[in-house]
Amino acid sequence: MNRTEFILDAACDRAREVLADQMQFTLNAEQLQRFNALLDALLDAPLEDNPALRRLLSTPAPWER
């Protein structure tokens, strides 16, 4: 392995550690119950009208033009 490969490999390993730390978390039973309740409330809430998103979704994709 040359120096460039080593540095790239080390940087990728560190990036994986940082991302894993931000994607995984530990909750106790009470926190998990509250987290699930918040998720349920979020998923059950009606969607707000978003004109920009509506425009985006109604615009043909570049490969459809």
Q: Could you explain how this protein is built, in words?
A:
The chain is mainly α and 65 residues long. 69% of the residues lie in helices and 0% in strands. It contains three helices and no strands. The longest helix is centred in the first third of the chain and has 21 residues, at 3-23. The protein starts with a helix and ends in a 7-residue tail after the last helix.
Instruction: Please count the helical segments.
Output: 3
Q: Indicate the percent of residues in helices.
A: 55-70%
How does the overall form come out from the CA principal axes? flat
- Termini separation: 47 Å
Q: What pattern of helices and strands is seen along the backbone?
A: HHH
**What's the pLDDT, averaged over the residues?**
90
Per DSSP E runs of 2 or more residues, the count of β-strands stands at: 0
Q: How much is the radius of gyration in Å? A: 21 Å
Low-confidence stretches: none
Largest sheet: none
User: Hey, roughly how much beta strand do the residues contain?
Assistant: under 5%
What is the SS-derived class? Answer: mainly alpha
